[in-house]
Fold:
Amino acid sequence: MGTLIHGLLEHAMSQKKATAEDLHGLGMWLTVEQPQLRQVLELAVKTVLYVSKSDFWDEAKRSDCSVECGGSVCSDRFFGLLSGKIVQLVVVVAVGM
Structure:
């Protein structure tokens, strides 16, 4: 279910306004190879819509976003190392950067 939620969140972050219908359609496409996930699709859509109404979401939408960044990231700012992973959605909420 994590991949489904991630795909829906990424779509919602990249759109000015994502509707339940948009997210449901995308969710159907994202679950083509895993149709068993369709039984939790409504819950996934509701979760993304709920999160997209939070103060954190508004702050993230105002921040710089990068989509489909490959490789490694190592920085004191990020408190650690992401190595050998594909980071599909990176949102940096900068305070004083």
